[in-house]
Design goal:
This protein has helices spanning 2-10, 23-36, 52-60, 74-85; strands spanning 14-15, 43-48, 63-68. It is an alpha/beta fold. It has a 3-stranded parallel beta sheet with strand order 1-2-3. Helix 2 (23-36) links the parallel strand 1 and strand 2 (43-48). It starts with a helix and ends with a helix.
């Protein structure tokens, strides 16, 4: 958790492969948020089918949502989006 706190305080993080409703993530992230508060840099989460309520909850946690459009192959869409970050 200390390593994550250090990185969250000095870097913008990209959250991939987790569920914001995962209790383990919520526990760890909650600890980081309570300790760092204003020093927590904004993070980003690439997600599909995000509801407005979910997006608002993530914004409250300093996580900006990249709402990817739904489609037949989410893995391919995510790979394309990630590849586009390099250019």
């Amino acid at each position: 958790v200390k390593l994550l706190e250090t990185e969250a305080a000095r870097s913008h993080m990209l959250y991939l492969g987790w569920s914001h409703s995962d209790p383990h993530f919520g526990l760890i992230f909650g600890q980081m948020l309570s300790r760092l508060d204003e020093n927590l840099r904004a993070g980003y989460a690439a997600l599909f089918d995000v509801t407005p309520a979910e997006a608002e909850e993530l914004r409250r946690r300093h996580i900006r949502v990249v709402d990817l459009p739904p489609g037949p192959n989410k893995n391919a869409q995510l790979a394309t989006w990630l590849t586009g970050l390099q250019t």
